[in-house]
Amino acid sequence: MTDALRPRPSVNLDNGFIFEALNDGRLVIQKCDGCAELRHPPVPMCPSCHSLDWHGEEMSGRGTLFSYVVLHHPVVPPFRPGYVVALVELEEGARVVMPLEDVARDDIEIGMALSVAPERMDDELTLPVARVRAEVPA
Ligand SMILES: [Zn+2]
């Protein structure tokens, strides 16, 4: 039996740059060239200054847990019971939905420090994944 693949994201002209960057090992967010606002999910025109000019800004990979849900039902492969979906607030300010891995459910706290890095799910798909960020002693 082959392992089930994750559902494919709907890639289009507005968000394709994100998945291309993830495949290159980088996490990028759309940044307006007119007013420097970060936008996620990406859109063609800046809602703040109406500029059509933007670029993919590379993020630091540091963030905090803004919110999360734990999936219990239905359990569809390749997901496992207790799969955690996090809304991570990147330190640059954008919020991105992604899996939260390697943390016991009782240890999850809103505001906890997270590291975000692209991880290959299969031969064709790379997604950002959040893990607990180890505090570095000063
Ligand atoms: Zn703008």
Tell me what the structure shows.
The protein has 138 residues and is mainly β. It folds into 2 domains: 11-58, no CATH class; 60-138, OB fold (Dihydrolipoamide Acetyltransferase, E2P) (Beta Barrel), CATH 2.40.50.840. 6% of the residues lie in helices and 37% in strands. It has one helix at 16-23, and strands spanning 28-32, 38-39, 54-58, 62-71, 83-90, 95-100, 113-120, 126-132. The strands form 2 sheets. It has a 5-stranded antiparallel sheet. A hairpin with a 5-residue loop joins strand 1 (28-32) and strand 2. It starts with 15 loop residues before the first helix and ends in a 6-residue tail after the last strand. The model has no long low-confidence stretch (mean pLDDT 94). Bound molecules: zinc ion. Residues 32, 34-35, 37, 46, 48-49, 51 line the site of zinc ion. Residues 57-116 form the ChsH2 C-terminal OB-fold domain. InterPro entries: ChsH2_C, ChsH2_Znr, NA-bd_OB-fold, Thioester_dehydratase-like. This is OB-fold domain-containing protein. It comes from Gordonia liuliyuniae.
